[in-house]
Specification:
The complex is a heterodimer of chains A (200) and B (310). By secondary structure, chain A is of the alpha+beta class. Chain A has one helix and eight strands, in the order αββββββββ. Classes of the chains: A alpha+beta (200), B alpha/beta (310).
């Protein structure tokens, strides 16, 4: 229990602020250095193979400084609260993570990408009898997939991810599964109606 | 084009690997060693041992003890020996369908086949006139019992008084099982590291077909628990869960506690046991401590107490 509290304290004190500072730096700092900015905000739908749907929000930022807009910095929150656990007895669990995404073919509509996520996972078992079980974990997951950019600021991404840290109920929460698929639908809110190249 | 060809070649090589394990005559599944219930069912099953009970015998609690995936009746031998020291309970040890015999029979069995053996003994006991029947299951039998309860199997017949689950599995500790439908056909089977003596009573090689069956069963039970279900009137359920179970993730107990309610709407009982063994009630053939022995005795006593207090 003490270990869990310590982890949360450390999470709130260091990791979470660091995530926000990082994202805010790129978001506001970008106004100084570049006009070619992209901030995609939208929904992320995630399904662990043989476990839950976990849905939530996602945002990604990029500008010319970030490898000529090939690199995107992101922040996502997905939870079974907005997925399988809605109206069911499924375990309520939350994932918050930052991500770095490298987009191939940045000038094209169809862009393969690779992504690395890292963040934090927490599950709620509710009954005190389960306090002896691990309920929190660090998240690290590579992802790869395809993103399609429409002729207007809408983008759809589909990818396959793999949680490198999974739980076995002994050293990590048992409902943290390895393989997942995700779909994200985002809107570039900084778009100035630029014409995208819709060539595949 | 070349990388695609290489991947294709790799898949071809993996899928072309030998999928038949090297089972010896000294192992269960080799065609020589069989579960003893094949030869002497009357020594394990109450419906064979006492097919025509007296009115007094018919009132005696009968505990149907059912084992886990890839195991045999051996898993409950220690409990039977414990219960034999008293004359106020009967233990009926069921061998799950497809288990305890040839590897091929195991490979071709479905989870419905595994479950059928439990239903068969339950029905035989009812037909013989027994009125005080209880279910005691370890690991996969826990999932099989839960599937019976969620499916309303006991609506048309007298329901069990106690349903007692030792290290039930809904979520496996090893999460690679969740990918068995993807990689299973390439693997063929999974080998388990266990002692030569254990090879005689537990399948050393687990065919991927049965692992997929297990995953299908677990998915069904998990979905049923997510929807939630209520026990029949008069039925109690208790989960005994090893805290550091290396096989059935302890979070399985969380799912059961959240998903099952008694007929009066109360949550079911859960006891978290300080152990790192899977099916901690079976100590024979594996190293164990005095604390493990104490856990076993405590649970055996609790089981007996619960069925006698019905």
């Amino acid at each position: 229990m003490l270990k869990v509290q310590f982890f949360w304290k450390r999470f709130y004190a260091t990791i979470l602020p660091a995530m926000w500072v990082g994202v805010m730096f790129f978001f506001f700092g970008a106004t100084v250095y570049s006009q070619e900015r992209e901030l995609d905000i939208g929904l992320r739908f995630q399904k662990s193979i043989n476990l839950y749907y976990e849905n939530g929000i996602t945002l990604q930022y990029s500008d010319e400084r970030l490898l000529s807009k090939r690199l995107f910095i992101g922040l996502s929150y997905v939870s079974s609260r907005f997925g399988t656990a809605m109206g069911t007895n499924a375990i309520k669990q939350d994932n918050i993570f930052i991500s770095g995404t490298y987009m191939f073919r940045p000038q094209r509509s169809l862009q393969p990408f690779i992504r690395l996520n890292t963040g934090y996972f927490t599950a709620s078992y509710e009954y005190p009898v389960f306090d002896v079980l691990p309920q929190n974990s660090v998240l690290i997951s590579p992802e790869t997939g395809l993103s399609y950019r429409f002729g207007f600021p809408l983008k759809i991404g589909v990818s396959l991810g793999y949680n490198l840290i999974t739980g076995d109920g002994r050293d990590g929460p048992g409902t943290l599964y390895p393989l997942f698929i995700q779909t994200s639908i985002t809107w570039n809110i900084l778009s100035k109606t630029q014409a995208y190249d819709t060539n595949l | 084009m070349i990388p695609i060809f290489r991947i294709f070649l790799l898949v071809l090589i993996i899928s072309g690997c030998n999928k038949e394990p090297d089972i010896t005559d000294e192992m269960l599944g080799g065609g020589v060693i069989f579960d003893p219930t094949f030869y002497h069912p009357e020594q394990f099953l109450i419906s064979y041992a006492i097919p025509n009970p007296t009115p007094e015998q018919a009132l005696t609690p009968v505990i149907i003890a059912s084992h886990g995936y890839s195991a045999t009746t051996f898993e409950w031998n220690e409990f039977r020996q414990f219960a034999n020291s008293r004359d106020d309970v009967y233990v009926s040890q069921v061998l799950l369908g497809g288990h305890g015999g040839n590897y091929e029979d195991f490979k071709n069995s479905s989870w419905r086949d595994w479950q059928a053996a439990i239903i068969l003994e339950y029905n035989r006991l009812l037909e013989a006139g027994y009125t005080n029947i209880h279910l005691l299951g370890s690991s996969t039998s826990g999932a099989l019992f839960l599937e019976l309860l969620s499916g309303g199997h006991f609506k048309e017949k007298p329901a069990p008084g106690q349903v007692l689950l030792i290290d039930p599995i809904v979520i496996p500790s090893n999460k690679t099982l969740s990918m068995i439908h993807i990689f299973g056909p390439m693997l063929g089977y999974m080998e388990v590291d266990q002692s030569a003596e254990e090879d005689k009573v537990y399948f050393k090689y687990r065919p991927e077909e049965t692992l997929r069956e297990l995953q299908n069963l677990l998915n069904k039970v998990r979905n049923d628990l997510e929807k939630g279900f209520v026990l029949p009137p008069g039925t109690s359920l208790k989960v005994y869960k090893s805290v550091k179970d290396p096989t059935a993730d302890p979070v399985s107990a969380v799912l059961i506690k959240r998903g099952v309610k008694t007929f009066s709407g109360n949550p079911v009982d859960v006891e978290m046991v300080d152990s790192d063994l899977h099916v901690y009630t079976r100590l024979e053939l594996r190293p164990h401590t005095q604390a493990d022995k104490q856990n076993q005795i405590n649970t055996f006593n609790d089981i007996i107490e619960r069925v006698l207090n019905e």
